[in-house]
Amino acid sequence: MKIGVLQINPVVGDLTGNSARIVRAAREAASAGADLCVTPEMALTGYPPRDLLLYSGFVARTWEAAQRLAEQLADGPPLLLGAVQANESGQGKPIFNCALWCESGEIRQVFRKTLLPTYDVFDEARYFEPAPTGDPEANILRWQGRTLAVTICEDAWNDKDYWDTRSYARDPLEDAASFDPDCIVNLSASPLFLGKQQIREDMLGAVAAKYRAPLVYANQTGGNDDLVFDGRSCVFSPDGRLAARAPGFAEAVMVVDVDDPSAGRIAGDDFSREAETWRALVLGTRDYVRKSGFTTALVGLSGGIDSAVTAAVAAEALGPENVTCVLMPSPYSSRGSIDDSLELAQNLGIKTHTLPIAPIMDRFEAALAEPFAGREPDTTEENIQSRIRGNLLMALSNKFGALLLTTGNKSELAVGYCTIYGDMSGGFAVISDVDKTGVFALARWYNANTRKGLPGIPEAIIDKPPSAELKPDQKDQDSLPDYAVLDGILELHVERHKSRNEIVDAGFDRETVERVLNLVRFAEFKRRQAAPGIKLTPRSFGTGWRMPLACKRDI
Fold first, then answer.
1. For 487-507, what is each residue's pLDDT tens digit?
2. Same domain, 316 and 358
3. 305 lies in which domain range?
């Protein structure tokens, strides 16, 4: 039995476009000999559609689109289609997350998702009713003498033997095992965090071995808002070995004979942190810009590492001809920063504009001279410079219809070392889930692996001490702990949920920890107003970060 895995990149809400993607992929799989095809989870709507699901009209149109899609593919192999279905029982939530068995032009059977995750970025219990209990064959598809266990994403992630615990009371796969399935199929929309694929493959392989059945995992690819889906759909043999893997971060059609999975092809991949980060940033930026209706982007170049990496990502994602970099030197900008920025733009093939801000700074100083009389300059004047630059960039964005990409990293966003309505201005925060030490590592990796001998990010940018250059001889470490220390504390606190005492017990100075955690708390209002960015870590400042603003954070 040859199963065609349709690893597509859907656009959320684009029922017509997503249907066309599925049809093309299904026909390609049929040409390669597929007996049946399977899409990712909610492939018809794109995942996650979030509050689009609150509109009954959207749910109704999705069902109509599914019926039309089944008719379009009537002459091809049957299809397991990820979609949604209205719950007409009058009990519980109004819709189901489901897989539709489309055969001979009709929707013949519906499989409903049982386990609805509510952790991190997931909020499925907000929208969906879980599959009803009481039907032991609810997950079983019988077709041409075969028995298939059909599961949807989380339904395959609750094995108590693998995790040594169980997050949910039910295990759909355990229920299906009593029917001795010939194959387990999982429709998934599993977003990336760095290193997740190794966890997936280890866990899914253990599940396949436990039930002694081949397992087919179909994952979505592409960027949708702050999430990147890395694809890497895969197939496991009954002994748990990885038998096939589709390419990462790209659309693909993979046809595998589950009766002889050893004949499958395992696409090569690079699971290093920098390689995954780079590919996720490029795909996430490309899809956010294009799916939002833009074709061009703007980046403010400061001569620092963050804007350099952001510009490099933008050039790779959109093509250098579609990126414009803007230099906005002040009296405090070093000659080296200006020259380094121009060299970077030339290396990447990006056009530039140079807009000196000294005359505008003078006008602000004159306008504020009376109310500021008798007060010494402080961060207020520094922030004005940043806000001047933000206004200039937004003016260019408005005039030319280009999306402004912000350049702040996770370390800065965590502790508020950024200016709201200044350098935080923009529509998409490319590296907002990459800490400062990670940005430096990514720059070096990019030069060594992506440029391959071509000039890339100038070494002067990588080697110079980080500075906002908002006053004479300013360095980041004048205001912040060394980035290696800062990032170590932030990883424990933000990503691992460690309290101040636990961080101190891990070897960090108590005074420094207290200072950093206070900065994180005070910067919450800034993060609430920040542009969306790309989630790369298990805990990013985005959809899954839900800290209160007005509170006493005693942690």
1. 999 999 999 999 999 999 999
2. yes
3. 276-476+524-528
Q: Which of 212-221, 328-337, 370-379, 405-414 has the lowest mean pLDDT?
A: 328-337
Whether residue 186 is found in the same domain as residue 231: yes
Residue with the two structure tokens 């000294």 = 358
Residue 38 lies in a domain: yes
pLDDT tens per residue across span 285-335:
999 999 999 999 999 999 999 999 999 999 999 999 999 999 999 998 888
Q: 256 and 396 share a domain?
A: no
Burial label for 203, CB within 10 Å (0-12, 13-18, 19+), is middle
Sheet strands side by side (includes 242-245): 140-143, 146-152, 183-188, 215-219, 234-236, 242-245
Taking alpha carbons only, the member of 4, 2, 54 closest to residue 29 is: 4
Residue 549 falls within a domain, yes or no?
Answer: no
The catalytic residue positions are 41, 113, 153
* In contact, 424 and 390? CB cutoff 8 Å: yes
> 374 in the Ramachandran plot: left (φ > 0), alpha (ψ -120 to 50) or beta?
left
32 plus 57 within the same structural domain: yes
Closest by alpha carbon to 194, among 554, 540, 543? 540
Tokens of 70: 């089944």
Name 74's Cβ contacts closer than 8 Å, sequence gap at least 6: 104, 105
Q: Could you tell me if 328 and 182 lie in one domain?
A: no
For the question of whether the overall pTM of this predicted structure is more than 0.90, the answer is yes
Q: What is the dihedral of CA 520, 525, 526, 527, to 10 degrees?
A: 70
**Pair 331, 236 in one domain:** no
- Same domain for 43 and 104, yes or no, is yes
Tokens of residue 319, six digits? 């093509």
Q: What is the CATH number of the domain that holds 237?
A: 3.60.110.10
Does 251 share its domain with 306? Answer: no
Q: Are 351 and 341 within 8 A, CB to CB?
A: no
Sign of the four-CA dihedral 403, 408, 413, 418: negative
Round to whole Å and give the CA distance between 43 and 30: 18
CA nearest 111: which of 42, 65, 195? 42
Count structural domains, the chain.
3
